[in-house]
Amino acid sequence: MNRRIGMSTLLFRSEPRVVSAAAVVAKNENEGSFGGRFDLVLEDDKFGEDSFERAECKMLCTAARLAAERSGLRMQHIRAMLAGDLLNQLITANYAARELGIPYLGLYGACSTMAESLLLGSMLVDGGYCSPVLCCASSHFSTAERQYRFPLEMGTTAPPTAQHTVTGAGAILLSDTETPQPVFSHIVVTAATIGRVIDLGITDMNNMGAAMAPACCDTILAHLEDTGYDADEFDLFVSGDLGAFGSEMLLDLAKKARLDLEGRYLDCGASIYRAEQNFSCGGSGAGCSSVVLASELLGRIERGAVRRMLFLATGALMSPTAGMQGESIPGIAHAVVLERRD
């Protein structure tokens, strides 16, 4: 049975179930637009650890454990964890996997990691290879800031196009059957589109939205072409972290391609913080889309407010080394279709 249609879209015939999820965030994120919807809010950004890096690892472990426990499972029941973060050599996910002691695949898709993990996790479940599987992604403002930009002690002022890296970790549990205590009873993954790397020559590391928006538009168009769907067959198109500027750019690019997303589009980065928090263009980071999806967005599908969603986590595949050598910033976006089944 052919599970691929068109150039880059995969169909999941068994429709892997989303049975539970968990989102761990810091105070800034809980004070934003989706406050009160997260499963755990840190009292301090170090989460009781002696470094921000260890705090991020603890966040990811906590989200993974919560997602499993909420569905009535223990960690030894999990057949695979697919996880990633923003740090060199995936140190957050790697050390979290060491702590959890379960089969593990480390992924790097920058801020697109949550969609990549859901795409690959659905392939494992749909193919009969692994079930249940955990799909996870995390980021932390303090770890990402000093890796990609400036030492925290400098207190550097962010330019208007900059985004604030979300401190958060999200985990979503996929299964081929219902678990003993499913948190969600109506959400399935039906398809996914593998994105292409698109690079229009953006070199400003404080303008990631502009680097990612073309890739996001490319993947949306690819998915619609492959499936034959019209935009109005989706209740919601969700991008990961284009921010305010990148979101405007995406809508403009879509209009030029005769695709109107107005009224059915949400960007996690542009939405996660309130305007009065003054985080420039909004949020970013692998944890941004993961915590918004694991809390607010899955809730909308479960309640029936959204019946079909195209979730596109977006990634700026940049490197401090490549940036200093004058390289531009490649962008990518993977798409996953989440639907409600009654």
- The CATH topology name of the largest domain reads Peroxisomal Thiolase, Chain A, domain 1
Within the largest sheet, what's the order of strands?
1-2-10-15-14-11-12
Content of β-strand = 15-25%
In quaternary terms, these chains amount to single chain
Q: What order do the helices and strands follow?
A: EEEHEHEHEHEHEEEHEHEHEHEHE
User: How helix-rich are the residues, as a percent range?
Assistant: 25-40%
The CATH H-level superfamily of the largest domain is: Stage V sporulation protein AD
Describe the global form. globular
Our measurement of the CA-to-CA distance between the termini, rounded to an integer number of angstroms, reads: 26 Å
Q: How many structural domains?
A: 2
Mean pLDDT: 94
Q: CATH class of the largest domain, anyone?
A: Alpha Beta
- Counting DSSP E segments of at least 2 residues, the number of strands comes to 15
Per CATH, the architecture of the largest domain is: 3-Layer(aba) Sandwich
Question: Could you describe the largest sheet, including whether it forms a barrel?
Answer: 7 strands, mixed
Radius of gyration: 18 Å
